[in-house]
Amino acid sequence: MAKKLIRSSTDRTIAGVCGGIAEFLGISSLGVRLIFIILPMNLLIYVILINTIPDSLPL
User: Fold this and answer.
1) Tens of pLDDT along the chain (59 residues)?
2) With contact defined as beta carbons under 8 Å apart, do 20 and 57 qualify?
3) Residue 46 falls inside a structural domain
């Protein structure tokens, strides 16, 4: 089964975007959060990702 990019339901600080990206890439969510802090226009990118990445699948 192919991995899908979804927002995390367990590693959720604001909306689960960084946790979902970290799970998809197999890296630490702290690293993804640090990348978002360093990126210019990080708030705009984060808001776009909140609206485009689907929420985690219901259990």
Assistant:
1) 788 899 998 888 889 999 999 999 999 999 999 998 998 999 899 999 999 999 976 66
2) no
3) yes
* 45 vs 39: CA distance, rounded Å: 9
In whole angstroms, what is the distance from residue 12 CA to residue 9 CA?
6
Residue 55, amino acid = D
- Domain contains 31: yes
CA angle, 58 as apex, 53 and 59 as ends, to 5°? Answer: 140
The residue written with tokens 């210019």 in the block is 40
pTM for the full model?
0.85
Per the structure, the count of domains in the chain is 1
Q: Which domain holds residue 40?
A: 17-52
In a domain, 11, yes or no: no
